[in-house]
Specification:
Layout: E1 5-9, H1 12-29, E2 34-37, H2 44-52, E3 63-66, E4 68-70, H3 81-93, E5 100-101, H4 109-123, E6 128-131, E7 153-156, H5 159-169, E8 177-180, H6 183-187, E9 192-196, H7 202-210, E10 228-233
Parallel strand pairs: 1-10, 2-3, 2-6, 3-5, 6-9, 9-10
Antiparallel strand pairs: 4-8, 7-8
Helix pairs in contact: 1-2, 2-3
The chain binds fructose -6-phosphate (F6R).
Residues 38-42, 67-68, 81, 132-134, 138-141, 164 line the site of fructose -6-phosphate.
Length: 243
């Protein structure tokens, strides 16, 4: 069985540079990369790092796939995860919006998820997925319990995810429903980079990478995925000797 590789970085800045090196290398190897990109706080340093290297990167053929979005929330809404992705990553990197495959919140959720999956199939699947991890072990909004076959779908957010989301948007009302790329599609990615930073993530990183593989910790299915690299800072890493 494949085992996730773990890169332990000195701190968040080092983590962001290390992850950017990896993404830049994959882009150089395959400019028409199908890239799944998370939002949340953790990948923001990576995105900023890539933006700072903009002149050295050819992003003209990359396709960026959105990982998740609150139900009914359009890009113009300040809570939109797509809006966050565009502001922090695709726009400053010069990737036009027509190169972004989105979870369309303007149509019926099941139809939006089916359309996303169809576009993904036609594109040949994800080459690289950039993921963060929720403190409850979620990937995207695949909340526990989510099994490895869970498709792209509409979900109810856990209380924990609602709380984390509230932290992103201050006093904004947080929707309780969302669309997420499914475990099935994530785990089929040809490569996955999992980012985690800070001591609050340490316990869940340990369970995800070294604990039982269970729907109760959706990220634990990464232990069975193809080519997974966890890029962590020291604070988020708890090695055998530190248990
Ligand atoms: C965001 C997402 C979430 C986050 C996770 C970690 O698009 O899908 O799964 O990756 O909640 O969030 P941060 O990075 O803010 O700790």
């Amino acid at each position: 069985m494949p085992v996730p590789s773990v890169l332990v970085c000195e701190d968040y800045a080092d983590l962001s540079r290390t992850a950017a090196d990896l993404v830049a290398e994959r882009l150089a190897q395959k400019p028409a990369l199908n890239l799944l990109a998370a939002t949340g706080n953790t990948p923001m340093g990576l995105y900023a790092e890539l933006v700072s290297r903009r002149d050295a990167l050819d992003v003209s053929r990359v396709r960026v796939f959105q990982l998740d979005e609150y139900a009914g929330v359009g890009i113009e809404d300040r809570r939109s995860l797509l809006g966050w992705l565009v502001r922090s990553f695709t726009a400053p990197l010069g990737i036009p919006e027509d190169r972004i495959v989105r979870l369309d919140t303007a149509i019926e959720p099941a139809a939006a998820c089916a359309a996303f999956e169809e576009t993904l199939r036609e594109a040949g699947g994800f080459d690289l997925a950039i993921l963060g991890i929720g403190s409850n072990g979620h990937l995207g909004f695949n909340e526990p319990p989510s099994d490895a076959g869970a498709p792209t779908r509409e979900v109810t957010l856990s209380a924990q995810s609602v709380e984390t989301s509230a932290g992103y948007w201050g006093d904004a009302e947080v929707p309780t429903r969302a669309l997420t790329v499914g475990m099935r599609e994530l785990l089929a990615s040809r490569e996955i980079v999992l980012l985690a930073s800070g001591a609050p993530k340490r316990a869940i990183v340990r369970r995800a990478l070294g604990g039982a593989v269970t729907p109760e910790v959706p990220a634990s299915f990464l232990q069975e995925a193809k080519r997974v690299t966890a890029v962590l800072d020291r604070a988020a890493w708890c090695g055998e000797d530190e248990a």
